[in-house]
Amino acid sequence: MGLGVLEDNKLTHVPGTVLLNDQAADVENITSTLKHGTGKNAHIVLSPQPSEDPNDPLNWPMWKKELIVAILCLGAMLNAGTNGPFLNASYFVIAQQVNKPLTTVVLVSGYNLLAAGASGPIICAVSRKYGKRPAYLASTLFCIIGTAIGQAKISYNYLLAARIIQGFSTSAFESLIVASVGDMYFVHQRGLRIGFINFILNAASSLASIICGVVFADLGWLWLFHMFQIFLVVQFILMFLFCPETAYLRDTRYETDTAMDDNLGDLAKYEKEHQEVVVGVDAANVPKKKTFVQELAIYTGKYSEDNMLKYLAGPFITLLNPAACYAIITSGLLNSWYVGSAIILAGVFSGPPWNFGPAEIGYLGAGPFVGGMIGSIFVGWASDPIIKYMGKRNKGVYEPEFRLIFMSLACVFCGLGMFLFGYAMSVGANAILCAFLQGVMMVGVLIGIFATLAYGLDAFRNQSNEIFIMNMLFKNFMFYGLSSFANDWVAAKGPEEIMFVFGGTSIFLSLLAIPVYIFGKRLRSWWARHDLFVKFKMETKGPKLEMA
């Protein structure tokens, strides 16, 4: 029993469990020939193990990986973080300009979210078969086209068309970006990057509401789309030039974090023999490093020969995996509850006692933005050191369930923030206090989403595309549902009841992390033995190669 995680007696090695610290495990004599970290991480056994191919994303220099993540995060900020709440602060005024009911105008963004969710399985299938780069480029292109329609004319029909087409850009940047981290980074490096991505996708949307509200109030509807278009084009160019394909079919023996058998000894022996052979033989079998021009290719080959229709079902199959289902539903609902709290802001604060306009409503986003920043900085700073420490205490072995300890903090901050935010709005409290309490809520939301997404990536990396696509699909359909009835709910019952429902479900899901933590390893073992992706031959993996 490793730090409360129950051991499994069905498999010799459960996928997701990795040897992280060979000093603590006292197996340095076995793993000495394996690749390790550098500097203060010299005792960390890299997982997965990088191949000898210089084009393996795990072998890319750190500056290149960080540049790719930065550009993809810019894309996530625009296509997902800004695209969704683009009009949050302006719904009330837009409804007056186009002479439509508030709920009808809010549903325009609901259709945007519906398009984002519906496109998810297609993005999943394309990324599985042809890689992630085509999906990213096509997604930004959709947003550019949709924004061009929105900036053409002040009209409800133009706005509706623009928001629907913009919606097709969201899916890839809400889901595949986390899977891209798994493509490029080792287990002990992922926490910081996932924390930053989490901040961009969630808290940065609050900053977008502030900026968009001010632009709408000062310059009007069309200039909001004009300025958004400039940033989209710049991001598309940067992504085309500096974001090569991260999908890679690696020799299966190197995939130490997804293997069903403990093959470290065999791999160490293979590495030792390989090193001895390379000393006297020209490395003719090692592929040449791709040039900058070669990396610009949009089509880099097929990563699977299976029919794409099969992969359309992939995201839904993940719901049959209990541990992955928990990660999908928990992160999706926490995200939905924050979006729900943002959707009702315009309706609540445009009335008495506040009587705010679009700019003032936008400024309320400062609370969740600062709260999200605090939560993201905390998990980014603490997550990887904590899992290294827990791995050391667990005789050098890392379990993905260690990520779930952060759900205890999510429980506290979500509960306090959501209950008090709802009560403060219901009594007409000071707007600064309301923004602060929404920020407290956002701390818990960000920590909870981080914990579950990181758990899903580490526990089931080979199915991370499907897990995060399903997460995106689930939460966007939730967003659509909230956009259709949240304001009517608040109009009928006040803001207190809806926020209390959000708070109660968030506490329940956070407490549900306890049994998932305890029985998570056995759940992973059960899925590995009954994996439908294996039974339906839906895996994308490299061959098991023998030494030349």
Main traits of this protein?
548 residues, mainly alpha
Write the layout of secondary structure elements.
Blueprint: E1 18-19, H1 22-25, H2 28-31, H3 62-82, H4 91-97, H5 102-118, H6 120-130, H7 132-150, H8 156-167, H9 170-184, H10 190-219, H11 221-242, H12 264-280, H13 308-312, H14 314-317, H15 322-343, H16 345-349, H17 358-363, H18 366-393, E2 397-398, H19 407-426, H20 431-459, H21 464-493, H22 495-511, H23 513-529, H24 532-535
Antiparallel strand pairs: 1-2
Helix pairs in contact: 3-9, 3-10, 3-11, 4-5, 5-8, 5-21, 6-7, 6-21, 7-8, 7-9, 7-11, 9-10, 9-21, 10-11, 10-18, 10-20, 15-20, 15-21, 15-22, 18-20, 19-20, 19-22, 21-22
- As an assembly, this protein is single chain
How far the N terminus sits from the C terminus, by CA atoms, comes to 41 Å
- Structural class estimated from helices and strands: mainly alpha
Provide the helix percentage.
Answer: 55-70%
Mean pLDDT: 85
Q: Which percent range describes the beta-strand content?
A: under 5%
Short description, anyone?
The chain is mainly α. The chain has 24 helices and two strands. Helix 6 runs antiparallel to helix 21, helix 10 packs antiparallel against helix 18 and helix 19 packs antiparallel against helix 22.
Your description of this structure?
- With 548 residues, the chain is mostly helical.
- It is built from 24 helices and two strands.
- It has a two-stranded antiparallel ribbon.
- Helix 3 packs across helix 10.
- The longest helix is centred in the middle third of the chain and has 30 residues, at 190-219.
